[in-house]
Amino acid sequence: MKLKTRNLLTLAELTPKEFSYLIDCSISLKKDHRRGADKPLLKNKTLAMIFQKPSTRTRVSFEVGMYQLGGHAVNLSSSEMQLSRGETAEDTARTLSRYSDCIMARVYEHEMIERLARGADVPVINGLSDAFHPCQILADFMTIKEKKKRLKGLKIAWIGDGNNVCNSMIHGAALAGADMYVATPRGFGPDKKVVREAQKSTLVDLVTVSAAAKDADVIVTDTHSSIHNRDRARIKKFTKYRVDSALMRTAKNGAIFMHCLPAKRNREVTPSVIDGPQSVVWDEAENRLHTQKALLVALIKNS
Fold first, then answer.
1. Annotation says 222 is catalytic
2. How far apart are CA 290 and CA 45, in angstroms?
3. What is the 3-state secondary structure (H, E, C) of the chain?
């Protein structure tokens, strides 16, 4: 399927049909890989990857994904590029467009990914920004569909910080027709515009932790702060937003637990949950590979 959007900066750029297609394509590519039947769909294609922030899952999944598709990925640390010496994002994108077939960037400010997209003549993918993380949510909904066999009508509970991942999860819920219940401390809610737009097509409710988790099909959390943040005042505000076994017991039988990783055990989630039988975090991490591949094929092959 040819996507209507040239880039993927947020999931709001996709239609429900496109979102569903990418999920199903990801599942198909995973089956091909498990059978040892990877197809060189992007033979001789090149992906330029810009990293302002450290990465494990994003870098490896995109790099390995391009390899499995017959292409090549170039890893570029922004500190080693002319970006660090004042070259504009637009000029960087124009240059990389002459060498590569797609640009993926993991950046601090969402404005940076928008500027790269404005300057590029090739598709640009948001590998993470301070506002959105669309690639993670593609993998999350792929995982949910694998485990639950459907997406529409499920109850998804978000517990914790209404951050970039939460914003994109709300986009995903709207595209999938899932109900989204968000529990965050006061002042840490998701983007209000994202919530308002999503509410036009699905149920998005800001509620308490207990109301979010009750009878949920999926419980999701993320780090309450960046991995090195030791702000005690912030940590205290999130004390009641930790996912533990007692909270999971209030969800539906067979509910699954998700976390995009990296995780701080005993901060946002207890070891009994993240390492327990309801946790699907490792499937979720693996599925980053297959959803990146589906996205790359959709954007590059059909561009």
1. yes
2. 17
3. CCCCCCCECCHHHCCHHHHHHHHHHHHHHHHHHHCCCCCCCCCCCEEEEEECCCCCHHHHHHHHHHHHCCCEEEEEEHHHCHHHHCCCHHHHHHHHHHHCCEEEEECCCHHHHHHHHHHCCCCEEEEECCCCCHHHHHHHHHHHHHHHCCCCCCEEEEECCCCHHHHHHHHHHHHHCCEEEEECCCCCCCCHHHHHHHCCCCCEEECCHHHHHCCCCEEEECCCCCCCCCCHHHHHHCHHHCECHHHHHCCCCCCEEEECCCCCECCCECHHHHCCCCECHHHHHHHHHHHHHHHHHHHHHCC
One of 52, 68, 102, 106 is an active-site residue; which one?
106
Catalytic site residue 199?
no
Q: Is 133 a catalytic residue?
A: yes
At residue 15's C-alpha, the angle toward residues 39 and 295, to 5°, is 25
Q: Is 140 an annotated catalytic residue?
A: no
Q: Which of 136, 140, 259, 278 is catalytic?
A: 136
Query: Is the peptide bond between 262 and the residue preceding it cis, with omega within 30 degrees of 0?
Result: yes
pLDDT in tens, 106-159: 999 999 999 999 999 999 999 999 999 999 999 999 999 999 999 999 999 999
Q: Which of 133, 171, 224, 290 is catalytic?
A: 133
Question: Is 231 designated active site?
Answer: no
In this prediction, residues 218-224 reach a mean pLDDT of 97
